[in-house]
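Continuing the batch. This is chain 6 of the set; chains 1 through 5 are on the previous pages. Same settings as before, nothing changed between runs. Recording input and output for traceability.
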Amino acid sequence: MAGQRKSIGRRWLTAYALLAVLLIACAFAHSAIARQLNDWKVLPQPERLTELYFTHPTALPTTYAAGQTQTVAFTAHNLEHRITTYTYSIAANDETGNASQTLAHGTFTLAEDQTKNVTANVTLPALGNREQITVSLTNVSTSIDYWLNVGTEAKT
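Output for chain 6:
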């Protein structure tokens, strides 16, 4: 009887060991399968984006005088699900799209879900009666803009 109990105990121990090995193998297989499905782009991927907006949109200037300095303030919010280094450019364009001039540029790095306010003082060129001021994040292909009309008293 004691020998029979030992035999049953060993069987249970063997069964538990096999079960543990099976669970570990399944965990590794699941990880490998999930990794392969991700590589094939079969599983849903998080949407990567960056929010870009003017920090004070109601205070944007509406007129300009050539040679005048104005402040351009914008905000970027990183929702790329990774640390991202942004390259920005601020440019003035005439209304026909034929003339353009870079007014400021730079870079900054944001962690996931981090926000950065950027302020740049720019000197406006004489490109015509109307100018479009464009802020671009060139490495994520997003931009915002506003228009200015020629005037003698420009709002900053």
